Amino acid sequence: MGSGTGAAGLSLLLALWSLTGVLAEVPAGAVADRWSRRGALAAGALGRGAAFAVWTLAPVPTGFAAGFVVWGLAGALSSGSLETLAYDLLRERGRTDAYAGLLGRVTAARLGAALPAAGLATLLLPHGYAVVGWASVATSVAAGLLALRLPEAARGVADEGEEPGLGELLRSGVREALLDVRVRGPLVAVAALTGIDALEEYLPVLASSWGVPTSLVPLALAGVPLLAAAVAGAAGRLRGAGRRALAGVALAACCGLLAAGALGRPASLVLLATAYAAYRGVLVLAEVRLQEAASGRARTTVTSVAALLSELPAFGVYAAWAVHGLAAVAALLAVVALALPALLRRRGGS
């Protein structure tokens, strides 16, 4: 960092961010369930804007630390809020069958937005760090204001019964996530698949090791999120795919990763992009199964538990990479794929 923060300092900042997110993840889900998922989504976007503002105004170690804490809190507020907001609104309108398609398009937008954002940052960076920082603030504020315009299901329609307190929602959400057999399987599936996405951190390393010149790595990897976005966007059409079919697609993704690693050339990126896209499609459909299984008022809390538990397989990816690189990560994905038929089995009339 230009502020003089070295590698050790950067690691401490990232650890602070991660710790904040872990501690706030599930309570933030309960806050969204108790008050407003739309409000939590907007607060998360505005919180990210506040973090950018802190980093821009105080580009020193203490400023970065404060910004990472705010960023962690913002991420916890946003986590799962959009998914549960959309599902309850569709449930209110009797259109839950449209959720898979909607989630697929949202995921596609998230994946596809990384490219224009990176391009804009590249254009702005020559004008100085502050310009990029304030542009990030403006984008976050705009996202927060747009979030406030989203419709939200009326509490009395989407959820029956008296208004529970924050503590009760937190307890009931955690209890539903961990003890309800209809929810636990899809939740573990989503957590495991989400954790595998830590592989994305190593894509530039793979591209370089396969002979792609360093200056061309960003361009060479552009197709990975684009193909993943296309597959995620189409995943809604496969809402009725069976659990064994999803496991088969995940296993095919494993084979694609192994083949890419074995080839070890720039052309391997085609196999890598295809495998990653297939994996993202499976993840979208697993997330749909989780929302379909959850039935209580604490839907965002349940989703937040899945996000929290995804940290465990993410660390598994880091360890697997350290042991044997891409092949070990592919093996880890294979284990998850083989477990999907059991995890996604519909139980108890869900």
Task: Describe the structure in brief.
This protein has 16 helices and no strands. It is mostly helical.
Largest beta-sheet details: none
CATH level-four homologous superfamily name: MFS general substrate transporter like domains
CATH architecture: Up-down Bundle
Q: What spatial form do the alpha-carbon principal axes imply? A: globular
Number of helical elements = 16
- Number of strand elements: 0
Please write the string of helix (H) and strand (E) elements: HHHHHHHHHHHHHHHH
The total number of structural domains is: 1
* Terminal-residue CA separation: 50 Å
CATH class: Mainly Alpha
Radius of gyration: 20 Å
Helix content: over 70%
Which ranges are low-confidence, i.e. pLDDT below 50, for 5 or more consecutive residues? none
Strand content: under 5%
Structural class: mainly alpha
Q: Which topology does CATH recognise?
A: Growth Hormone, Chain: A
Mean pLDDT: 91
Pfam families: MFS_1
Keywords: Membrane, Transmembrane, Transmembrane helix
Organism: Motilibacter rhizosphaerae
GO molecular function: transmembrane transporter activity
